[in-house]
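We now fix the convention by which a protein and its fold are recorded. Think of the row as the fold of the chain written in a discrete alphabet. Here is one such record, which you should read through line by line.
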Amino acid sequence: MADIDDMKLDGMTDQPESWERKLVRELSVAALREQRRARRWGIFFKLLLAIYLALLLVLYLPADMELMGLKAGPHTALVDLDGIISSSSEANADSVISGLRDAFEDDNTKGIVLRINSPGGSAVQSAYIHDEIKRLRVKYEDIPLYAVVTDLCASGGYYVAAAADRIYVNKGSLVGSIGVLMASFGFVDALDKLGVERRLLTAGEHKALMDPFSPTEKEEVTHLEGLLEQIHQQFIAAVRDGRGDRLVEDDKIFSGLIWTGEESLNLGLADGLGSPGYVAREVIGEEEVVNFTRRPAYLERLADRFAVVIGRQITETLGGRGLQMGGP
């Protein structure tokens, strides 16, 4: 079939082409090119979706097969505690505890590695995980649980680790920060300089406790310091109970300071150097690792990630081929 560019309308090959015919021809060529472009992008997005689905299966299906009842042989169970510990993060108590319970309840689990990379977070969420680890260790006394620190195990992260049978670190890991903090800002002088009047009504003498636009009250600060001290003592008690005689008697340990993994060994905050693979192979004796970490549902993960990929691609496409506003 001849290209549109070579076609002549109405068979009039010897007459000059009018502007109307030229316009029709150019519009036809443009329409054909646009159809071809649309088909190419359609094929591209379909291929992208297929690749994405395949990657999801490869990355996530082996880990979650255990949770769906497809049993593996004897193995080391792995549960991740990654990121800030809070009720709204993936490192929330419900998810971590569910993964730990699944790992302990599996008949082929020979030992558990709790892989920690966390700066801490909620004292309550950390305490939930800590207490549940202690309960599960008593209930399943033949299954050891070892905490393995990667980059960071601080504050609430160490609160959790202290419940493990042993703690393994890397020499460059950061460990410790056994303390409690409360942070806020004060804008009292700024309001005065701006001529802004603060209007605050309360029922209860201390209901506006630590209001950032009001001066601090000594009585309130003393009360809050008492609360922090109580929580700090709970933290200290949990560490002492978990570490026992391995802990060196040094007040600096509970001062909120942080140490390298190598230094944490000398202080009794850790028991040895090792990666998750090393602990599975050399300590537990089962090199095969099955991940019991609870993750968001497949459809939720698929929707979130695919939306990001498609949105980015559409943005790039429009930026390169479509309308531009405010640019060259």
Q: What stands out?
A: Residues 4-56+302-321 form one domain. The longest helix spans residues 19-65. The chain has two domains: 4-56+302-321, 72-295. Residues 1-13, 62-70, 314-328 have pLDDT under 50 and may be disordered.
